Amino acid sequence: MEKYTDNIRFFWQWFENQYETFFNQNCVLKKPAHQLQKHLEAIHPDLCFQIAHRLDEYHYELVFSCGANTALKPLVKAIAANAPSFPLVRVAAFKQRADLCEGICLEDTTIHVENVRFKITTFLNKVAIHVYTLEDFSREDIQVALILLLENLIGEELMLDYVADIQFYRLTKEEEQKLPLLNKIPLAIDQLISTIEKAWLAN
Is the pLDDT of residue 172 over 60? Predict the structure, then answer.
């Protein structure tokens, strides 16, 4: 991580100077968001971020991530660990599990968990998630929304570490009756991961 130290420092120095341009007490000022991404990519081109609203003493959460590039996990954590303190914003590495997640709204796409079912299996000593939905999952925006919904329910870092495959299927009446709602996936995946980790230790 030493080769990134200066770039991380420069990034936070720039952000401190721009802080009030991004945030105020009423709304996130979205216009300069591309500037934040540009400066983040100066550290590494695969880095990305998300700004989320919170309902506690912080008004917003600035979440850093690395997409599917798991090799950058230590870098993402280093960026968050070196963040200054901000009065309205909590800085985090990776999206955490949401305590309550009823669905997701992404531009013109809204998906509710009660309309999605799932099944999980082992795959390459990791987890495969089979998602059953009424939505047109051939559309890229629907797939993106479903993956973001999974990240909210499971936690992004766990997804990076343990999920090897995600498949989408059309939800039939039969599957709607026999498969669990998507909001049941946190407990189910924790139990499967525990079994997988025991198998790892046994080998």
Answer: yes
Continuous H helices in 103-163: 140-154, 156-162
Q: How far, in Å, CA of 123 to CA of 13, rounded?
A: 43
Residue ranges of domains in the chain: 2-93, 103-202
pLDDT band of residue 1 (cuts 50, 70, 90) is low
First to last CA, the chain: 31
The Cα 126–Cα 25 span in angstroms is 42
Contact 109, 145 (CB under 8 A): yes
The answer to whether 102 touches 157, Cβ cutoff 8 Å, is no
Q: Where are the beta strands (DSSP E) in 94-178?
A: 103-106, 109-112, 116-123, 126-133, 163-170
Q: What are the Cα distances from residue 38, in Å, to 7, 49, 178, 183?
A: 12, 11, 46, 35
Q: What is the mean pLDDT of residues 139-159?
A: 91
Higher pLDDT, 128 or 52: 128
Condensed to tens digits (0 to 9), the pLDDT of residues 102-123 reads 888 877 788 988 999 999 999 9
For residue 189, what is the enclosing H or E element? helix 185-202
Question: pTM (2 decimals)?
Answer: 0.80
Spatial separation of the C-alpha atoms in residues 116 and 32, rounded to whole Å: 35
- Burial of 123-161, coded b for 16+ CB within 10 Å and e otherwise, reads eeeebbbbbbbebebeeeebbebbbbbbbbbbbbbbbbe
| Three-state secondary structure call for residue 46 | coil
Q: State the pLDDT at residue 5.
A: 93
